[in-house]
Design goal:
By secondary structure, the protein is α/β, with parallel strands linked by helices. The protein is built from 5 helices and 5 strands. The protein has a single domain, classed as Response regulator (Rossmann fold), CATH 3.40.50. Mean pLDDT is 85; it is low at 1-8.
Length: 138
């Protein structure tokens, strides 16, 4: 797990095992929302552990959204989606995909992802998505 970057009101959990993809995503995310807090985990299991600890911490550590790679070692992104769907309260999950396969996007939404973005995404796409998620939470 990598320590969080600069703190801000937006706190993201990035679950991505590829160092190069994680680097690009961090750059795009920091342009989309300067000063956002990004915690990176490199496996689904590590993401589970972090999320459980954050939810049980005193004071509670907020996670506003989870950015999830689907192809992870050990627990896959699909398995992580199934696990998080079993929780009573959980942050929205944004699936990180390699292509714009419409069938896969539909399956992701059925599995509980709130959205899918083709890696590494653009600052504009993430800004629009965060605004949409904020509107849904209100």
């Amino acid at each position: 797990m990598h320590p969080p970057s600069d703190s801000s009101q937006l706190s993201l959990l990035l679950i991505e095992d590829s160092p190069s993809d994680a680097f690009l995503l961090r750059r795009v995310l920091s342009k989309a929302h300067p000063g956002c807090r990004i915690v990176q985990c490199t496996s689904g299991e590590e993401g589970q552990k972090y999320l459980i600890e954050a939810m049980n911490a005193e004071p509670r550590q907020p996670v506003n959204a989870i950015l999830l790679d689907l192809h992870l070692p050990g627990m896959s992104g699909w398995d992580f989606l199934a696990w998080i769907a079993s929780l009573p309260l959980s942050p929205p999950v944004i699936a990180l995909v390699g292509s714009t396969d419409g069938a896969e996007a539909g399956n992701l939404l059925d599995a509980g992802a709130r959205a899918a973005i083709v890696k590494p995404g653009t600052p504009e796409a993430f800004r629009a998505l965060f605004q949409r998620l904020e509107g849904q939470a209100a």
